[in-house]
Task: inverse folding
């Protein structure tokens, strides 16, 4: 029996109807709407010969016992951002459900197969993304999580407790990755790369590493009218030059580079800015190239500072290493994608995904991306053609069956 794309699409629409409104999906983790989505999901799983339970971190698991305890995991997340789209996360869960249905129909598979629905991938309420998968990957920090508060002042500890999760025990979900020999996740691309290439599917090779820093330029605040151009120590001009340099570095050396914000003081039209802080975000899929991007930006800022007669100081905000998915699984997925669409496309992911955390925990991992219309996500306008969704489900099923045969 094969996975049924029509049924998957109908269920995706049913979920959108059940847990969204005219502004989009409203399945924020640790809310009643999210719990309703989970209830509905459990209803679908109840029709299968699987065991369903929730781990200490709130991740939902459905286990189809195989001939071996070695386990292949497929999944994603059913939570959404506020006013989210109809596919982000839930496509990965409902496609996994279809594959599970089709595998179950054939009797016990060679490996145990589990569907996972990670808790709180989006971090929309407490600002910490990948909460459930981080815990399962052994990266849970109870003290940090306990202190988080939502916009209404509710603590994460209380909100999670209301859904049966004890912040102190979340780390125990680590045992769930024991015996897991592979993890596969299908997700919408959430970017414009596949659409630009006019192709529905891509294989994700890993996730970008990030260097995020604040570069603070200090010059001299002075009157805009009375200070001659050649006697200025203009911090904002220096920061602006750095922004262009960061863009140029990514254009010429690969990766992506963004200055998303510059704060200037005193921040009025009648004064040369004495202080300007630029937020620099650089990402690359190779650790060495990422380090090089950052070093070049920092060096450029020193040259600019000298030129503009200002000082510059860098402080780190957030850093994460690039993560590489499993070479064998990437090769297997690429062969399937090439067969289905005639061309093999491999691309890194800009956004982090639960799959990155699973890979960091040492589980061989791969992701499939399906094209997003206009590259849009985290908005109700998020969309993918049904024909693409159908092809994506076919690719996922083939990949899962291939891994079961290869490792069984
Ligand atoms: Zn997602």
Result:
């Amino acid at each position: 029996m094969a996975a049924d794309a029509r049924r998957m699409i109908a269920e995706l629409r049913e979920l959108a109807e059940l847990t969204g409104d005219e502004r989009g999906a409203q399945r924020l983790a640790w809310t009643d709407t999210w719990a309703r989505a989970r209830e509905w999901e459990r209803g679908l799983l109840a029709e299968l010969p699987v065991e369903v339970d929730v781990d200490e971190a709130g991740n939902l698991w459905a286990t189809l016992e195989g001939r071996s305890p070695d386990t292949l995991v497929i999944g994603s997340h059913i939570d959404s951002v506020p006013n989210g789209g109809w596919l982000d996360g839930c496509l990965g869960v409902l496609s996994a459900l279809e594959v599970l249905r089709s595998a179950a129909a054939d009797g016990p598979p060679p490996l145990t197969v589990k569907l996972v629905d990670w808790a709180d991938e989006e971090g929309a309420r407490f600002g910490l993304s990948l909460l459930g998968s981080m815990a399962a990957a052994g990266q849970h920090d109870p003290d940090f999580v306990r202190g988080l508060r939502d916009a209404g002042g509710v603590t994460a500890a209380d909100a999670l407790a209301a859904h049966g999760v004890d912040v102190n025990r979340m780390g125990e979900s680590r045992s769930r990755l024991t015996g897991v020999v592979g993890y596969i996740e299908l997700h919408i691309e959430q970017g414009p790369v596949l659409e630009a290439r006019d192709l529905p599917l891509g294989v994700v090779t890993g996730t970008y590493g990030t260097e995020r820093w604040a570069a603070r330029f200090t010059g001299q605040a002075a009157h805009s009218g009375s200070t001659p151009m050649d006697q200025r120590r203009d911090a904002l001009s220096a920061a602006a030059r750095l922004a262009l340099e960061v863009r140029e570095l990514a254009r010429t050396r690969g990766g992506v580079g963004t200055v998303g914000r510059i704060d200037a003081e005193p921040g009025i039209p009648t004064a040369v800015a004495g202080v300007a802080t630029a937020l620099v975000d650089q990402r690359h899929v190779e650790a060495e190239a990422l380090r090089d991007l950052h070093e070049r930006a920092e060096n450029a800022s020193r040259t600019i500072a000298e030129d503009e007669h200002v000082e510059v100081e860098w402080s780190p905000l957030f850093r994460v290493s690039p993560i590489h998915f499993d070479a064998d699984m990437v090769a297997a997925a690429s062969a399937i994608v090439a067969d289905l669409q005639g061309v093999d496309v491999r691309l890194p992911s800009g956004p982090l995904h639960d799959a990155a955390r699973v890979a960091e925990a040492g589980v061989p991992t791969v992701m499939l991306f399906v094209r997003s219309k206009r590259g849009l996500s985290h908005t109700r306008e998020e969309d993918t053609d049904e024909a693409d969704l159908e092809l994506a489900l076919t690719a996922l099923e083939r990949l899962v069956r291939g891994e079961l045969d290869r490792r069984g």
